[in-house]
Amino acid sequence: MHERFSTDPPIVIRGLVNRFGDIAVHDGLDLTVKQGEILGVVGGSGTGKSVLMRSIIGLQMPDEGEIEVFGKSITDAEPDEVLGVRNRWGVLFQGGALFSTLTVGENVEVPLKQFFPEIDDELRKEIARYKVLLSGLPEEAIAKYPSELSGGMKKRAGLARALALDPELLFLDEPTAGLDPIGAAKFDRQTRELAQVLGLTVFLITHDLDTLYEICDRVAVLADKKVIAVGTIPELMEIGHPWIEEYFNGPRGRGAQAAKVRQDRRAGTS
Ligand SMILES: Nc1ncnc2c1ncn2[C@@H]1O[C@H](COP(=O)(O)OP(=O)(O)OP(=O)(O)O)[C@@H](O)[C@H]1O
Q1: Given 73, 82, 88, 157, which residue has the most CB atoms within 10 angstroms?
Q2: pTM value?
């Protein structure tokens, strides 16, 4: 079977420890991300969600522990081996992290040039164009510079770049932060559609309760330097952890839950 169709978990983390000076951000963190799921990652500010993502993609070398992505160790691998898995994921960083001196199209071409230098210019431009359109941007956005884009368009451009290499795994760091509610709901819908159509596994850091209710199959909760629970929202609510209760049962959590129920009724699914 081609690895793309493997049912093995694409991410397995065991005993992760990350320290900055004397302070441990993670201390014995375990997490398994299942093939094909959209996993929401939540936790209070500073609980280490971004550090966790950076560790998985090899930008942060952990002090202890083991991280496997597509069965390859990120923590012990030789740089060449990591390169072999790096082209199987795409990352949308907070704020898009676009190169300001390149147009949207050129930004999307960057990973293509890096990993597939043999592709000729015309084909590379055409692939980049297709990814920009796939991300929901109009044709005219291709030639624009990041400074000419709205916040929502920058996110979509970042998404187009994250999709450049046809990834199997997509990392999204707070994709709807700073978007208006309509833009955020659109972005959520698009993430779900892309995940379904392209067969992606999605690791999604968010504070957005609507996103969690709308598109996440499971949610991992970071607290006390670990993942304290992973499951569907109803499963998490049964655990009775005070932070989880407060998070999902607070006024915003109840609002998001009610919105989901209304939407499901309209769609005739409940
Ligand atoms: N390079 C670094 N050097 C020192 N401390 C760092 C570094 N990167 C992160 N930290 C610290 O690690 C902790 C976790 O940071 P991280 O950005 O992962 O939190 P987060 O859960 O993503 O927060 P937020 O929800 O606010 O984005 C914070 O206390 C942060 O100050």
Answers
A1: 157
A2: 0.90
Residue 16 domain flag = yes
Q: What does the alpha-carbon distance between residue 234 and residue 173 come to, in Å, rounded to a whole number?
A: 24
Select from 115, 98, 94 the least CA-distant residue to 107.
98
Q: With contact defined as beta carbons under 8 Å apart, do 175 and 187 qualify?
A: yes
Please state the domain count of the chain.
1
Cβ of 46 closer than 6 Å to ligand 1, yes or no, is: yes
Instruction: Quote the ligand 1 centre to 50 CA distance (angstroms).
Output: 7
In a domain, 164, yes or no: no
Distance CA 226, CA 229 (A): 9
196-253 residue pLDDT tens = 988 999 999 998 888 898 899 999 999 999 999 999 999 998 888 888 888 888 767 6
Query: Could you read off the pLDDT of 18-52 as tens digits, one per residue?
Result: 999 999 999 999 999 999 999 999 998 999 999 99
Q: Is 42 among the domain residues?
A: yes
Q: Is 49 in the pocket of ligand 1 (CB under 6 A)?
A: yes
Residue 256 per-residue DSSP state: H
Domain span at residue 238? 1-88+204-270
**Which protein residue has the closest C-alpha to ligand 1 atom 1?**
20
- Domain of 79: which CATH number? 3.40.50.300
Look at residue 198 and tell me if it is in a domain.
Answer: no
Angle at 159 between CA 258 and CA 59, to 5 degrees: 105
Measured distance CA(112)–CA(127) in Å, rounded = 9
C-beta 191 within 6 A of ligand 1 = no
